């Protein structure tokens, strides 16, 4: 066998560098995981409570889950993403996956095997989550990019995006971030989503929504599902990858779902059978522990209400950090306009820092962020935000 070296994964490489740095001033703004104001991971109180309930159940066990995953999770997840009275009801198949990544992968293979025309390409936003290209290429797709971020204004390049959708051949696959776009933190407005849906319908494009941050963009799960629900209301067939890593803090438990919205209930048996087959071939059965936690939270009205409040708290803290960072940069007179820090939403901010500045921040200031200048705002807190702003100021001057 002749095996060439695979390219290094930027985020994983960054985590290794950050872990190896024991400097007391170190700030890790790389990984997209929520941290509390002391920089620690946060186990949501509802997750603790769900675990307590699971362990006090005398029937708790570690048996395999059935085909398709845990019904408490898949049905609750479906309601969460499409809303309670969705016009899609009765024609959606929801299957448990290995978090959002697994949902992306199953979707990618499914689309490669069944999407027509069979030579349809996959279009990803420029930029996008680093794994999208790798996942879709691994599944055998040709991957192209559509314009998304205007790198000068750090705002959405809506004209470029729509032009690229119009220019693409009919019937292509478009990967859309449902909310809190990673890495830019720039989302289309509701009006822009309507334009996107209109153009995609005219061109017969297929929407694949990746939803890894529901609740993180606005703090409200329904507002964050706006785009998906709009496309459903517009009658699209579509796929949604849904992750509970960030919004329930179940990162390593690998809890997620893939939802397939079909044109008619009559095709559900075929679609579900093929998705189940792909799942069986890759993971055999889905992982149980995180699903039981999430299922408990989604099924219990009291826990569900508390979970919504926790999500609101997380998004509020992130927003407060955006304002502290921007205000400090403005106060320092740091060259440039910093409005984008508070205009962008979700976990990430695309700062506009260059690769060279990012490198200087890493080597001279022990501050870790991806080479494209993306910071995870969740890594900021009241103890480090001044240091972060002062360091950014120093490398820019
Ligand atoms: N999709 C996007 C856009 C992401 O940012 C992430 C995680 O960073 C994922 C999917 C997958 O996350 P996970 O597999 O941890 O659920």
Automatic annotation (TrEMBL):
Span of domain Aminotransferase class I/classII large: 26-392
Cofactor: pyridoxal 5'-phosphate
GO MF: L-aspartate:2-oxoglutarate aminotransferase activity; pyridoxal phosphate binding
UniProt keyword terms in alphabetical order: Aminotransferase, Pyridoxal phosphate, Transferase
Keyword Lyase: no
Gene3D superfamilies the UniProt entry points to: Aspartate Aminotransferase, domain 1, Type I PLP-dependent aspartate aminotransferase-like (Major domain)
GO biological process, one term: aspartate biosynthetic process
Top-level EC class as recorded in UniProt: transferase
GO cellular component: cytosol
Pfam families with a match to the protein in the record: Aminotran_1_2
EC numbers on record: 2.6.1.1
Family: Belongs to the class-I pyridoxal-phosphate-dependent aminotransferase family.
Subunit structure comment from the entry: Homodimer.
UniProt protein name: aspartate transaminase
Taxonomic placement: Eukaryota, Fungi, Fungi incertae sedis, Zoopagomycota, Kickxellomycotina
Gene behind this protein: aat2
